[in-house]
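# step 3/5: fold
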Amino acid sequence: MTAHSRPAADRVVAALRGVFRDRLRSVVAYGPQIDDGGRVVSDAPGSLSCLAVVTSLTVADLEACAARTHGWQREGIATPLLLPEDEFRRSLDAFPLEYAEIIGAHEVVFGDSPFQGATIERADLRRACETQIKSHLVHLREGFIEAGGTPRAIADLVTASAPAFVALLRNIARLNGSTARDRATATREGARAAQLPDGVVTDILALERPSALKATDAARMFPEYLGAVERLARYVDGWNV
């Protein structure tokens, strides 16, 4: 965890313990600032996300957390994801991509790991990958039409959609049994599994550092980017559990 994220995570834990007391079971920090490969991906305010698992969750608890929202926003902390224990376990099949991403890069900052013994079935992961990839494909096509041929708008579309595409590649890697927790490694593994061109993947990864590419360069990437997403959709269509 980065120098910025650790104090912020501690403040989230303190606030949640004040609300839930002994009903708070665990708090997990996740997202791009957590990288088991030891590489700092992001240390910017607003990058910290937390999952809190509790024994029970009431309207009074929500009201107590709501009173802390403005403070979290001022400190650049995302609203914590609050889940009762039983609901968390029963939702692994409903949100396999989201939980796989959290499991892939997280740090327990309070209590025991909620992921101990948790399993995401590959059939659930494949189904979710297909849904997201095809939704991503439709979004890109519609977004391009709406851009009306304006390079700036096309560049914005490519840049804004890049993180979701990169996350999909990491999920393709997990679908194929990858245990890599380093984000870049997992992304590359997913791209290789789907046989995507290295150049396209490198350019999309570079968009995580927006200053690395000019707007016009991002706009020129669109045809190859769209082709890569189309190939990814065909790949997951033919993937067998």
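# step 4/5: annotate
The first helix runs from residue 5 to 20.
# step 5/5: archive (pending)
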